[in-house]
Design goal:
about 1250 residues; 6-stranded mixed sheet; 27 helices; EC 3.4.19.12
Length: about 1250
């Protein structure tokens, strides 16, 4: 969102700011880049104006709005040239919008600027850097335009295009009197929370009625009393362009913070608003709307980025499909898939019809779907339809699965009918294609959609819109246009259509100016300034090259085209130097403090200057390649001259010492030994001290050990300008040091790293300390460590450094080219020198392990390309771990080092799945089900009433009649009356399609070997529950319902419960576990299933009456309570009272579905007979034990948190890093003066 924050004009930069011999080339002097292949222009982001750019592009691609604005001439709006005149009436905002739209249409530049427009808004630079809401901007901009256009022919522009009305009606049920109120709107705001999509939201707003009855009656003015009434709303007048704002930002009153609603919210490409309108007698075309713009928000509620998907109605841009297919196939697919793309039934049906045998393996069906549509089942249909296998199972009327559900085919009636329909449809297509003239069978009729993201414009396919239904990057505003609005043929692909003449002339002149500037810039950018240093005019002195005569005569400046070759450069120099004889060698040189040094020779006359990596202002040394002035020259970076400042005692001719230290400059090759200092000073032996210059109270001197005298200057860390002190070995330690100096005999006071040897495992672990700074390159540290550890030189080509964490685990290798600061290596930390090269920038270093029970440090390692697919990565890891077979899959380790979600898309690359270096993957046994399928663990659940448990009095362990294999599933804390009767036995896994029905799931489960021993006669005698926390959770009812409709998810587990007789639970039946309390004891009888019909409401009175009838007790002599096993608490239901809202004074509906009961299937209801037990207590002894255990657990957690809080507060206080408060939000406004 924050791109090109500062656009400065560098035309006023003084030449004195440029370096000697260099030319300052600034981006501000370059013309804007031309349009890309789409031929559409984006809009530059001023720092935080992406929301403005998205809305402006939407208005620009609304041709009717754009042309209505263009129709207003200077006689009505004035002229921008007159805006500074005192008496002129200039409507600046419409004029700047006109000019911006003309630039977007005609000016050949990649992106236009909104600087003039935002200036007309009265915005400052602070406002342009601040993020705002695009929905708020839409209303404010329309208001500013209406104000600016008062008194012109465009005064009703906004109302004409965007104004609609809503009518709210209240109908009296007694006298049928209608009270109505009309509201105007420019955009509709619809809810997102708890709504599946746009049509569902409109249905709730404009079809559903609110009924006033019971305690919430309506006062009718005609009847003059409280009566029953119905309130509704309808759309009375529809605008040509319908703007819809999605309420994705909400406020959490529990957490007291804002949040973004990222759930799935669908919206159609075409929508019929007839069901939501007051008048429905008009033709359907009056109600049909087509989507043409989607503004998308990426991020959270406190910040993010906007971009927009836009349909190019006038085909102004170049739009191309990614796949190149023939014209005939394109038309066939376009016609065949016109209604199939959004209908999974039709797509799967078409795929099966294309099979000769009308049968296909289910796992291959998903692959063929991916090839046909270009997108996998999971990405396109899973959110709405569930897994593929379940989808097939839930449509038995069309698809037929074999017994083991490995293959699928069409039922015979659908097969024959579809064959005839398809043949007839194909004949119609071929007839249509044959009648089309040549050249018309192309993409021109395809919807042309573009993703406009500030300056960037990319073509997209229409189906890409479905990816914006949900997530952090999702649709935020929708723009529809009436389908009957047709554009004239003259406007098609004609950006000059209806653009005013004065703007056409301005844009044409601007394009000519841009072409001239680009030609000049191209010439300037392709010319290099080279500095030629002539070898015959130099001599070698004091370790470097110096001019033998003046600098002016020794160096020539040459301007040369960088697109030419080295051969051309050599020929040009030959022509300039007529005196040259013999071979000519061109070498790259560089000025260093010691003088001029030659680095490498330029070879390959066919290479261009760019390919030879020659930079602007490069120094080129022209010589014979061997010697200069009779002295052989060493070249390369290894022997780069280093200028050192040496402090030493001045020697007299007789060898006596002077009383004064002198400083002299000496030049040494970087690859020379440190001991050569003695030779240069004519000193036989002595001590060399280096100065770190990093101490706060003075200079810090370090003595170089004798064994390091054979190290080179570069290995010792000496650079240009380094200061060293040379002292005789027999002199007093401090005699030559400054008085304020300190003696440092080791590297303890320097920054250092500890490098451990992990290359030779058979030897004892060795380690060395390497002096370094945060700017030291990792490569230098590695080479120095190899030498100090006295390892083989060959390791320099096949070794790497790896950080070691506090547990001793070797982490991801550090790239050689990085500095310690870039690699985030802290001083004083430990590194391991290991065999093997570090990964390149396009490679990933991954840890992997077998199984799900892993421990840090026990993983294996592998280096792979980031473009590798998950399938190929799995093969490499299996091969490296010595495993065989295909029954494996990969899972990513989550933040708590446990097995996370599986990597389901085996054809996706590691980069696409955002796998990074250092991540840990798990090789998990078991093949993942194909896309669209579920692999569901099946458990057997047996309640106490059937399993033969003893009566639930105060027994925490009751033996089951099924034998030792049965046992209570693990639960948290001591169980209450519910957990004691929860017995789960694992039966096996079932792999099934998400399209399968519930009865098909039961059939597959009955085929498991473990179930056959249980002698279940029929699927009708099985009840299916989901399993959460090792206990039944949600009842799955309706045998013919598809599994996808239950939204089970990939980690779903199910359990089967045996029934004594068949049951047929209706949609409003609730299954409850009821227990009768034993009088005089804190215990209950065995559970009995009770079916409660909630047709008349989820009221407490209705439930109490049903319980009383079930147990044949008087309703006034019972008390009932719901049990909460996680809290070990009972909540009496008979004492439930209606809650009254304070503001509306309206009673909430008497429902047990809501708080505080949240009653659902499988809940335990305790019943107390007041004839024998009038005690208010519902709890048991086991509840007391459970509460005590929870209390102790909470105290332990509290103590742990206090310890952690104390540690963290100490750390923060020592670091001194207070949290940064979030700044207040600023309001958005557009200032409209008196036509200024």
């Amino acid at each position: 969102m924050f791109g090109n924050l500062f656009e400065e004009d560098y035309s006023s930069v003084s030449s004195s700011q440029c370096g000697k011999g260099k030319k300052l080339k600034t981006k501000g002097l370059e013309p804007p880049a031309p349009r890309e292949f789409t031929n559409l222009s984006g809009i530059r982001n001023q720092g935080g104006t992406c929301y403005l750019n998205s809305l402006l592009q939407t208005l620009h691609f609304t041709p009717e709005f754009r042309e209505a604005l263009f129709s207003l001439g200077p006689e009505e709006l004035g002229s921008l040239e007159d805006k500074d005149k005192p008496d002129a009436k200039v409507r600046i905002i419409p004029l700047q919008l006109q000019r911006l739209f003309a630039q977007l249409l005609l000016l050949d530049q990649e992106a236009a600027s909104t600087r003039d427009l935002t200036d007309s808004f009265g915005w400052t630079s602070d406002e342009e850097m601040r993020q705002h809401d695009v929905q708020e901007l839409n209303r404010i901009l329309f208001s500013a335009l209406e104000t600016s256009l008062v008194g012109t022919s465009g005064h009703d522009l906004i109302n004409r295009l965007y104004h609609g009305t809503i009518v709210n009606q209240i109908v009296c049920k007694e006298c049928k009197n209608i009270s109505e109120k009309q509201e105007d709107f420019l955009d509709l705001t619809v809810a997102v929370k708890n709504v599946s999509g746009l049509e569902d939201a409109l249905w709730n707003m404009y079809v559903e009625e609110e009924v006033f009855d019971c305690d919430n009656l309506y006062h009718c003015g005609t009847c003059d009393r409280l009566v029953k009434a119905a309130k509704s709303a309808k759309l009375r007048k529809l605008p040509p362009f319908l703007t819809i704002s999605l309420l994705r930002f909400n406020f959490d009153f529990v957490k007291c913070e804002r949040y973004k609603e990222t759930s799935c919210y669908t919206f159609p490409l075409r929508i019929n608003l007839k069901p939501f309108c007051e008048q429905s007698e008009l033709d359907d075309t009056e109600y049909m709307y087509e989507l043409f713009s989607v503004i998308i928000h990426k991020g959270g509620c406190y910040g993010g980025h906007y971009h927009v998907y836009i349909k190019d109605v006038d085909h102004l841009g170049n739009w191309q499909c990614q796949e190149e297919i023939s014209d005939t196939d394109l038309n066939l697919k376009a016609l065949q898939n016109e209604e199939e793309d959004d209908d999974p039934l039709m797509i799967l049906k078409t795929i099966l019809l294309q099979e000769e045998t009308n049968q296909i393996p289910v796992d291959q069906l998903g692959q063929k779907l991916l090839k046909k549509t270009g997108i996998s089942w999971n990405k396109k249909f899973r959110k709405q339809c569930g897994p593929l296998r379940k989808f097939l199972q839930l449509h038995p009327q069309m698809f037929l699965l074999n017994t083991d559900e490995s293959t699928v085919s069409l039922l015979r009636n659908h097969f024959t009918q579809a064959r005839s329909d398809r043949q007839r449809h194909r004949e119609q297509i071929l007839h249509t294609l044959a009648s089309e003239p040549p050249g018309l069978s192309d993409n021109t009729n395809c919807p042309h959609w573009f993703d406009i993201n500030d300056s960037k414009v990319q073509p997209i396919k229409e189906k890409a819109i479905t990816q914006q239904f949900q997530g952090k990057e999702s649709a935020y505003m929708l723009f529809y246009r009436k389908a009957k609005l047709q554009r004239p043929s003259e406007a098609r692909a004609n950006p000059r259509y209806r653009v005013p003449c004065h703007l056409l002339k301005e844009m044409d002149a601007a394009n000519i100016q841009l072409q001239m500037r680009r030609a000049e810039c191209d010439s300037a950018n392709n010319n290099f300034e080279l500095h030629l240093h002539l070898g015959p005019h130099y001599h070698f002195f004091n370790g470097a090259l110096h001019p033998a005569i003046s600098q002016t005569e020794s160096m020539w400046d040459l301007t040369f085209d960088k697109r030419k070759t080295l051969g051309d450069l050599r020929q040009s120099i030959f022509q300039l130097l007529e005196f040259w004889e013999g071979d000519m060698v061109l070498s790259v040189a560089k000025r260093v403090p010691a003088g001029l040094h030659v680095y490498h020779t330029l070879d390959g006359d066919e290479l261009t200057l760019c390919e030879a990596e020659i930079a602007d202002g490069e120094d080129i040394f022209v010589w014979n390649g061997v010697e200069v002035g009779g002295v052989q020259i060493q070249t390369g970076s290894d022997c780069e001259p280093v200028l050192l400042h040496i402090l030493h005692l001045e020697m007299s001719s007789k060898g006596s010492k002077c009383e004064q230290l002198v400083e002299s400059q000496h030049v040494f090759p970087a690859n020379a030994e440190v001991g050569t200092v003695f030779t240069a000073l004519a000193v036989p032996v002595g001590i060399i001290l280096t100065n770190s210059g990093e101490s706060a109270d003075g200079e810090c001197w370090t003595a170089i050990p004798k064994e390091d005298m054979k190290k080179t200057f570069r290995e010792q860390g000496l650079r240009n300008g380094s200061l060293i002190l040379v002292q005789d070995s027999d002199s007093d330690d401090n005699s030559l040091l400054p008085r304020q100096g300190r003696w440092t005999s080791s590297v303890d006071e320097l920054n250092w790293l500890q490098v451990k040897n992990f290359c030779q495992l058979e030897s004892e672990e060795e380690q060395v300390q390497i002096a370094a700074t945060k700017h030291t390159v990792v490569f230098d540290i590695r080479i120095k460590a190899i030498k100090e550890l006295k390892l083989m030189k060959e390791l320099a080509e096949n070794s790497c450094l790896r950080p070691i964490d506090k547990h001793g685990k070797l982490l991801c290798p550090v790239p050689d080219a990085c500095t310690l600061e870039e690699a985030e290596v802290k001083m004083g930390s430990s590194l391991g020198l290991c065999l093997g090269k570090a990964p390149t920038s396009s490679q990933l270093f991954l840890f992997f392990a077998l199984g799900t029970d892993i421990h840090p440090g026990a993983e294996m390692e592998v280096i792979v390309e980031e473009t590798l697919s998950v399938r190929d990565c799995l093969k490499i890891m299996l091969e490296k771990s010595g495993q065989q077979g295909e029954m494996w899959h990969l899972r990513k380790v989550d933040w708590c080092y446990e097995a996370g979600e599986p990597l389901c898309e085996e054809d996706a690359t590691l980069k696409e799945l955002m796998i990074c270096s250092g991540d840990t993957l798990l090789l998990t046994e078991g093949k993942l089900p194909p896309l669209g399928f579920l692999k569901v663990p099946i458990w057997w659940y047996q309640s106490a009433s059937l399993s033969g448990h003893c009566e639930i009095r105060d027994h925490s362990n009751c033996a089951s009649s099924q034998g030792s294999s049965w046992g209570p599933a693990p639960t948290q804390g001591a169980p209450g009356p519910g957990p004691a009767d929860v017995s789960l036995l694992y039966l096996g896994d079932v792999e099934i399609s998400e399209e399968a029905t519930l009865v098909e799931l039961k059939s597959k489960a009955m085929a498991l070997p473990s179930v056959s021993k249980l002698a279940v006669q029929s699927t009708a005698l099985l009840r299916v529950w989901t399993v959460e926390n090792k206990r039944p959770s949600r009842l799955l009812r309706t045998d013919w319902r598809q599994l996808k409709e239950y939204r089970l998810g990939r980690r779903a587990e199910l359990c089967l419960e045996f029934l004594q007789k068949e049951e047929d639970l209706g949609p409003r039946d609730v299954l409850l576990r009821t227990r009768l309390r034993i009088p005089g004891e804190r215990a209950y009888t065995l559970a009995m299933d009770l079916v409660w019909d909630t047709t008349r409401g989820w009221t407490a009175a209705s439930l109490r009456q049903r319980v009383a009838d079930f147990y044949s007790l008087p309703v006034e002599k019972i008390e009932i309570a719901k049990y909460f096993p996680e809290k070990f608490e009972w909540l009496p239901i008979s004492s439930w009272n209606q809650q009254v809202a304070k503001r509306k004074k309206k009673k909430n509906q008497d429902t047990l579905q809501g708080g505080p009961y949240y009653l659902k299937d499988g809940d335990t209801i305790g019943i107390k007979n007041l004839l024998f037990d009038d005690d208010d207590d519902f709890s048991t002894i086991r509840d007391d034990i459970g509460k005590e255990n929870q209390k102790q657990l909470a105290l332990g957690k509290k103590k742990s948190r206090e310890v952690l809080r104390a540690q963290s507060s100490d750390a923060f206080s020592s670091a001194g890093m207070p949290t940064r408060p979030r700044g207040p939000e600023a309001s958005l406004s557009i200032h409209v003066a008196s036509f200024r």
